[in-house]
Design a protein that fits this description.
Blueprint: E1 3-7, H1 12-23, E2 27-32, E3 54-58, H2 64-74, E4 78-81, H3 95-116, E5 121-127, H4 152-171, E6 175-180, E7 183-184, H5 193-205, E8 212-214, E9 220-221, E10 224-225, H6 226-236, E11 244-247, E12 253-254, H7 255-265, E13 274-276, H8 294-297, H9 307-327
Parallel strand pairs: 1-2, 1-4, 2-3, 4-5, 5-6, 6-11, 7-10, 8-13
Antiparallel strand pairs: 9-12
Helix pairs in contact: 1-6, 2-3, 3-4, 5-7, 5-9
């Protein structure tokens, strides 16, 4: 039985990845960062909570002794570093914590791996935000696109990306980067724009909310589904040689287009309810992201979800949640 260790296992990607690996017959270990409201810390893991091959404990990327201890005891075959301060706009409010977690945290895990399980395969959750304002002439961003990040989050992720490449070359560790473009699901935090829009639209439809405040309506993003993207993570760690891969749908939509689709699915016109609030604008905006995932598709990876089917699933999720709340 293969053993996998996942940082950030309680997050959107971590929970889907844990489910996927358990279905493949793995023994899965993971850490979540403790906070003062434990009621929802592990709620995304509810579907697999009773699986005897799942082991979850508290941990933090900035607690090097804890990471060292776990890797020394578990000796995993595969390590997936998904933990991060993952909200781009909030990275402007807490830049030092973002950098400490998203860059130095990567070094901490790599060092623990190098010292305790150097033959384990390592996956780093890199981000399309690393490209920032750089776009190739054909309108895509790919593995060779210049990285010019425009946020503390993006800057920290570039360091994480480069230190993985450095450890790969310097210590011959099987360390790879998955450069993932935006990916969503019903498990996405509701302060991220996709779930924020869907949740608000459903509440408006049910008479539980009047308006929705958003920031930049004309930001374009390449949105895929987390379930598809965690399969790419696993695929990357199965390759005989480590490398870097872009994971994306290759299709882009604006926030405005997303609002139009979601509200239309609920027989509403978003223009009647959505207003712009400057407090949700970033100090430096990132207008456009669209990924070229040709390289990983050559390995056999493909998307099962479309943008529309993903948004429909999220709509159904929140309808179910709020209708149950109303009926109680």
């Amino acid at each position: 039985m293969k053993k996998a260790f996942i940082t950030g296992i309680g997050g959107q990607d971590g929970s889907y990845l844990a489910e996927y690996l358990l279905d493949l017959g793995y023994e899965v270990y993971g850490i979540i960062r403790r906070n003062s409201t434990p009621e929802h810390q592990q709620s995304r893991l509810d579907p697999i909570r009773n699986n005897k091959n799942l082991h979850v404990s508290y941990g933090d990327l900035n607690d090097t002794s804890g990471i060292e201890r776990i890797l020394r005891e578990v000796k995993p075959d595969e390590v997936y570093n998904l933990a991060a301060q993952s909200h781009v706009r909030i990275s402007y409010e807490i830049p030092q914590f973002t950098v400490q977690t998203n860059s130095v945290g990567v070094v901490n895990v790599l060092e623990a791996l190098r010292n305790n399980c150097p033959n384990a395969k390592f996956y780093q959750a890199s981000s399309s935000e690393m490209f920032g304002s750089s776009v190739d002439e054909d309108g895509f961003q790919r593995e060779s696109t210049k990285m010019t990040p425009v946020s503390p989050y993006g800057c920290a992720k570039v360091f994480g990306y480069n230190i993985v490449r450095n450890y790969r070359n310097a210590y011959k560790i099987h360390a790879s980067n998955g450069i993932l473009f935006n990916h969503e699901s019903p498990r996405r935090g509701s302060n991220f724009v996709t779930n924020k829009v869907v949740k608000a639209a459903v509440k408006i439809k049910l008479g539980l909310q009047d308006k929705l405040e958003l920031g930049n309506m004309d930001a374009y993003r390449d949105w895929g589904h987390s379930k598809d993207y965690v399969k790419a993570m696993h695929l990357i760690n199965q390759q005989p040689k480590p490398d870097d891969w872009v994971v994306s749908t290759g299709v882009t939509h604006s926030v405005r287009e997303m609002c139009d689709y979601v509200f239309s699915q609920l027989d509403l016109n978003y223009k009647d309810y959505v207003i712009q609030n400057k407090k949700f604008l970033r100090p430096e905006e990132l207008p456009y992201l669209k990924g070229d995932s040709t390289k990983i598709r050559k390995l056999g990876w493909e998307c099962e979800y479309t943008f529309e089917s993903m948004m429909d699933e999220m709509i159904e999720h929140w309808i179910h949640i709020f209708k149950n709340t109303i009926n109680k």
